[in-house]
Amino acid sequence: MRTIMLFLLAAVALxxxxxxQTNSPALQASLNDEFYKSTDVRAQLSPDGSxxxxxxTDLEKLTITLSGSSEGVYTLxxxxxxxxxxxxxxxxxxxxxxxxxxxxxxxxxxxxxxxGTFKFNAYRFGLDTLNAxxxxxxxxxxxxxxxxxxxxxxxxxxxxxxxNNFNPxxxxxxxxxxxxxxxxxxxxDAITLQVPxxxxxxxxxxxxxxxxxxxxxxxxxLATESGEITISAHDTEFNLIAGTFSFxxxxxxxxxxxxxxxxxxx
Length: 266
Prior knowledge:
Pfam families: DUF6252 (PF19765). This is Lipoprotein. The chain is mainly beta. Helices cover 6% and strands 57% of the residues. It contains one helix and 22 strands. The strands form four sheets. It has a six-stranded antiparallel sheet with strand order 2-1-11-10-9-6, with no helix packed on it. Residues 1-22 have low confidence and may be disordered.
C-alpha cells in the first residue's frame, strides 16, 4: 500500500511540473506551419517613438517594427513604419513592406516590457511567401543595445549549370535604354538576362532580340540555342522584378542552364 501511495504522489508531482509556465521573455509563432521560437528576445525604443521587437535563434531572426509603443492594434503592410521581417538560415529576407499584410497587437506594456500577439504574410519578392500565425511575444524587455531592423531584400540570382550550383558573387541589375539588364557573375562565368523595361508577367521564349539569356565562360559569351524566361512579378513603381529562367547553349559546349531564379531591384 505504501508503495502504491508513493507512486501516486510521484505521478501527481510530475503532472504538476508539466503544468508550470515560466515568466521568461519569449517570442514564438507558426511560420508556414512550422513552429518557431526565439532563444533571445529584446526590444528597443527609438527617439521618434517607434518600437522594435526582435527574436533570434542561432540562425534565424524575426523583427517587428512599429510606429509606436502604446497598447493597441498596429496594421502591417504598405510603405509605412509598421512591418515584420524574417531572415531565414540561408539569409533570405521576407518582409511585409510594401506588399505584405498583417497586424500586431500590443496587449501589455507595463514595467518596460511588451507582450502581445501578431500575424502576417511576408514576401521574398516574386519568389516565396511566409505566413505567420499564432504569433506571441511575452514580457520582451527594453535593452540599450541597438537592433538592426533593416528590411532591404538582397538581390538574388541562382541556377544550375550542367547540374552544378551557380551562386554568383556579384549580382547587378540596371536599365539601359528600354531594357533591364540582370547579371550574375563569378570569377570564371556569368549569366546575363535582358528583358524590356515594360515587360509584363508571363512566359517568354529567348529570342535573341528583345529578350535574351546568355552564359559567359572564361570571358567567351556562348551562343544561346533555346530557352525561356518567366516573369512572375514586376513592379515598375519600386523597380522590382522576379522570375525564373532556363536555356541551352549551342554546339560544341551544349551547356544546360536550369532551375534559374532571380529577384532584383534595378
